[in-house]
Amino acid sequence: MNRKIVNIIICETSHIIFEGLTRILNNSINTCAIHFANNMNEMQQLNLRYNADIVILNPVLIQNITKDFLSIQKEFTTTHWLGIVYNHIDQPLLSLFEGIIYINESPGEINALIKKMLTIENPLHNQIPQNETLSEREIEVLKLLVNGNANKEIADKLNISINTVITHRKNISQKTGIKSVSGLTIYAVVNNYISVDTM
Amino acid sequence: MHLLNKMFVLPEMKTSEIIINNPYLMLMFEHFEIKLEVHEKTIDQICNENNISNNLFLCIANLFNGYKPDKITEYVSKDIQSIIKYLGNSHKYYVKEIYPRIQKYIKEIYKINTHTEILMLEKFFTNYFEEVTEHLEYENNVVFPYVLNLDAQLTHKNSNYTLNSYSVIEYREHHNDIEEKLTDLKNLLIKYLPVENDQQLRRKLLFCLFELEYDLNIHSQIEDTILIPLVEKMEKLGA
């Protein structure tokens, strides 16, 4: 492995599972930093900061938000997503992950899976949707942005974190090729997201 | 960079050949105040005639051709004078020639394409142009005199100059990204703004934007990879 530090986020509500996994991972990967997230929000914030190589996630946490999970996956294109499973999870949910760690697996099997993940490139990587149109959420952020709202205000109004606002803005600029707010204002008018009279 | 054949420029090459290989180099010749009409002269000869060091000429010509300088050049007073002349002339090219030409095209487009968005584009550009002018004036009035003073002090031509507490570090911070809004403009014109009989004008406008972008890109690379490291060396020498 030619990378310096492998960043892994474990997103899990049980400390027992977290500690156990951490110990197994530390024993086999020399230079890895393991971070603990209690919920999806914390996971996203940590991932923005560390740009994780792998997120190990309890599928229970995404049971009712599978659509959000898919868009989160698209946001972090260099991250591999593994599930940690210790109770019954439906197959469709499991299929959203690149690999599954089952509770009764041996440390050897777990490490083999981790190492395999680190050697392959995430299929979503470099597939940044250059031609895709903006998502509904991105349009909401865009509208608030060009109407003069700061990141903090947008976060409050949409009830999301500032980090999420920043990620949305990054994606908007990536898709449109336009970075400045004044440029995006013109873009928003062209696409009828706002009308000139309301400005 | 839109070069098909990247050519690494060497002193013994014919001057005309490097221009034919990369016509954008004509901008460099203008900024250095080197006349075309180069006959069969080599780069070495042209440099001698124009009192520009080979080293600096090759460094910048190769920047134009997509090669970054691999080492920081030594402090030579003559080079500092040439670099400041080059940068000052490129400012004139921006303010007096290319930006006004872009503005003219946008105005012409609005005459035949009266969509609100085009009017907004004109306003966008006017504001942008003001920002650029402000930045260039800062360089003209603060950065360049500072560098020239520093050079004068080091060569003892005029030891009356006193250096203020200004340092090139501040310059680096102030050195904001003019290229970003240029990219916005290009994308708006290519991807989003409604066309209404203005495609030929738009093409002319876009070619201006590409020319400007090319020159600005080299301009900031000269500042970042040649001028700033040199001035840092000078500051140490003068300290």
Order of helices and strands of chain B: HHHHHHHHH
Helix vs. strand class of chain B: mainly alpha
State the CATH superfamily name of the largest domain in chain A: Response regulator
What does the largest sheet of chain B look like?
none
CATH topology of the largest domain in chain A: Rossmann fold
**Fraction of residues in β-strands of chain A:** 5-15%
Cα-atom Rg of chain A, whole angstroms?
19 Å
- CATH class descriptor of the largest domain in chain A: Alpha Beta
Provide the low-confidence segments of chain A as ranges. none
Number of domains of chain B: 2
Number of strands of chain B: 0
What characteristic shape of chain B results from the CA principal axes? globular
End-to-end gap of chain A = 53 Å
Number of strands of chain A: 5
Query: Can you give the mean pLDDT of chain B?
Result: 88
- DSSP helical segment count of chain A: 9
Helix content of chain B: over 70%
In whole angstroms, how far apart are the ends of chain B?
39 Å
Largest interface: A-B, 14 and 18 residues
What is the tally of helical segments of chain B?
A: 9
Radius of gyration of chain B: 20 Å
What is the compact description of this entry?
The complex is a heterodimer of chains A (199) and B (239). Chain A is α/β, with parallel strands linked by helices and 199 residues long.
Describe this structure in words.
The complex is a heterodimer of chains A (199) and B (239). Chain A is built from nine helices and five strands; from the N terminus they run βαβαβαβαβααααα. Helix content of chain A is 48%, strand content 13%. Chain A has two domains: 6-119, Response regulator (Rossmann fold, 3-Layer(aba) Sandwich), CATH 3.40.50.2300; 136-198, Winged helix-like DNA-binding domain superfamily/Winged helix DNA-binding domain (Arc Repressor Mutant, subunit A, Orthogonal Bundle). Chain A is elongated and about 65 Å long. Chain A has helices spanning 15-28, 40-50, 66-75, 91-94, 107-119, 136-146, 151-158, 162-176, 181-190, and strands at residues 6-11, 32-37, 54-57, 80-85, 99-102. In chain A, α3 links the parallel β3 and β4 (80-85). Chain A has 199 residues and is an alpha/beta fold. By secondary structure, chain B is mainly alpha-helical. Chain B is built from nine helices and no strands. Chain B has helices spanning 15-21, 25-31, 43-50, 54-64, 77-112, 116-154, 168-174, 179-192, 199-238. In chain B, α2 packs across α5 (77-112), α5 (77-112) packs antiparallel against α9 (199-238) and α8 packs antiparallel against α9. The radius of gyration of chain B is 20 Å and the shape is globular. At the A-B interface, α9 of A face α6 and α8 of B.
